[in-house]
Amino acid sequence: IIALASVIMFLTSLMKSVKVHLESFGIRVICLHSHLGDGGTSEASNWGFTQAQLDWVQNTALDTDKQVIFFSHIPFTQTLDAYNYQAANGVALRTIIESFIANGGTVVGLFHGHTHWDNIGSGTGAFKEISTACSLARATTADYIADGATIPERVSGTITEDLWDVVVVQPTEKTVKMIRFGAGDDRTFTY
Prior knowledge:
The structure is a single chain. The protein is α/β, with parallel strands linked by helices. The protein contains three helices and nine strands; from the N terminus they run H-E-E-H-E-H-E-E-E-E-E-E. It has a six-stranded mixed beta sheet with strand order 1-2-3-4-6-5, with helices on both faces.
């Protein structure tokens, strides 16, 4: 289901669809296109989520008793992001999700890229934010890196020039195992 979610997330990046969710094994997978922004014209306004997405998440996607897992290219807020842009409507999206949790909902986590580092953080504490380093084989550095984050060493012509995770969610145990191919290490966390 996670591989399928990745394909759907890629396809939604090519179109303007915001209504993508899958359900299997007691988990609802929600993929959000994170480059629709707030409709402004500045570069910063291109990063983030539309009001239509917020409405859909609140009124449709989170209308479930299943555990929920989010996928997005960017994190919802600056909590784990070294870049200068605050995601449009990111704080509002986080508030919607925190309300879902406060009312008994379970969030596996937010899986995102964008930062080009590996990290499992707690963001503001309500749910895990899991970043995965860039799959592109190039040297990646950051002026800032989150506490506990790592940037795996890449060597062209070896298995470390690639990098991706297989995500295995065990909803009964509330455990996630991330099995790494290429540079970096396997990761495990509970939620």
